[in-house]
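Morning - iron/sulfur cluster inputs below, output right after.
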Amino acid sequence: MIIAVASGKGGTGKTTVTAALAANWNAPVAAVDLDVEEPNLHLFLHPAITGTEKGYIEIPKADEGMCTSCGACAELCQFKAIALIGDTLLTFPDMCHGCGGCIAVCPTGALTVDSRELGELCHGTSGNIAFHMGRLRIGEAMCPPLMKLVKHDVFSAYEDDSRDIILDSPPGASCPAVCAVSDADCVVLVTEPTPFGFYDFKIAYEAFSVFEKPMGVVVNKAGIGDRQVYDFCAEHNIPIWAEIPFERHIAEAYSTGAVITQAVPTLQPVFETLRQSIQESVHA
Ligand code: SF4
Ligand code: SF4
């Protein structure tokens, strides 16, 4: 089972929920930080990192002596990462998405495979929880290629279903978030009941609902703001699987990097219910 914990905007408590959910899972589980631009799940799970490797994307390298300026590569590239200006071939490695199309269509073999470093892939353990994380290289603009490498590692490690997988998705509803949610069996959408929270929640819900996966909501900081999130969920038949109250000792636990159900045991039943709701929704 793959669960994506997502949110319309940063700062809603998505990673807090991911950490507590992993800590309260009742089966072998892997917690995966796919928020590669700003990973912080490790700050809560404090894993022992046992392996780190670099991740790369394949990009074209041009041999100008072999290029006949036919233009096939530039015509094919949808990302303008390769261009022909007159007879001059230009490549823009940072804009390349690594599809390999230009290399495949080049009739002269002028394009060969080079690589660009995307960042790091780390793995380790936090108690019984397997931990995985991607960390984007400073200056690298694209998250999804590194996220795909992390997902490939994780999905192949547990393809025998030996562990359920909880993905801490990047915030928002753009490509990186969709990249995280697209493979999940179930989406947990974390929001806070404020006007800003509701605005971004609605966008995320609309983006993710096209996948037609089971989706439920965790309302963090319940008790502040207004009822717009609740009204929207009622209107669209979206279940609210958990509410985390807005209380000082929960915020203090979060600020010290604690798993909130360990620091505030009264929250354990909340996460028990959340876990059950997720499992029931996937098995329904
Ligand atoms: S590999 Fe794909 S994205 Fe990169 S330059 Fe070639 S066609 Fe464009
Ligand atoms: S497809 Fe090959 S030969 Fe044609 S312009 Fe591109 S690099 Fe040159």
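Note: Residues 2-55+120-283 form a domain with the Rossmann fold fold (CATH 3.40.50.300).

O.
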